[in-house]
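Lecture 7 notes: from sequence to structure.

We start with a single chain of 274 residues. Read the sequence below before looking at the structure.
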Amino acid sequence: MVHQSSQSLVEIDIFVLAVCPTRMERAMTHLVGHQVRRAGALALAVAALLVGSLIATGVEASDPPPAPTDLSATVATSGIELSWTAPTLDPGEDAPTGYDVEMRKTSAAGDSEWETIAEDVSDTDYTSTELLMTEQTYEFRVIAVYSEDSSSDPSDAVSITAPGVSKPGSLTKTRTTSGIELAWIAPTLSWTGIALTLSGYVIERDSWYTISHPELGQDFTSDEHSVGSDATSYTDTSTVDSRTYGYSIYAVYGYVRSNTQDGDFVFLQGVGTE
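Now the structure, written as tokens:
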């Protein structure tokens, strides 16, 4: 409703204006030069004009192209085997040029963001070898790609639980003249489901200055080192005595990683000078 004069008001029926652009144009012309009584009324009227124009010209937002269906996931020794059905197309519609596969970790504490793990998959099946945490739940979904700027909505998601795998035994450390020697007990392999092969270990190392040295740069660093499946010891020869080092280790079974070793995170002052 707008103020025409001190004595009269002009009422605007938004619905009528939306479906009758000509009437809207006349109303807008009538409104020019008059004071808008309510903040936002003019914006609402303009929006109604746009809606009316779309209705009058028959312009509608197009639906996204068809999405894949019937996505399934199977936990196998080689990875997570995914398969799906190609979208159902109307006559004359172009088929997808490929598929993108997405994954996320789910938990009671909250779900992680979707991450693309494969692009332009040409077939309707894919085996994921992304590293998964033992006994954690993950979701997968697939998107059909029709062109560089045209993709379907995601398929319905499917979930799997990563196989349970054994972790290494207690990690010990010894400071020697050559570095910090680490030793651990190989995990006991026991399978109730699929049998995965131990493929190696990953040693995680954090370090920080024992006494703060701002002039030396970053105070905290973190890195990893991989060793083979037959190893039960490792010597870190890249330490310095001005820093303290903390270590943990986990086992890797193909595409599944274990929890870290039994016992606590171990740490020790480094050996050598910078």
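Residues 53 and 111 are 42 Å apart (CA to CA). Keep this in mind for problem set 3.
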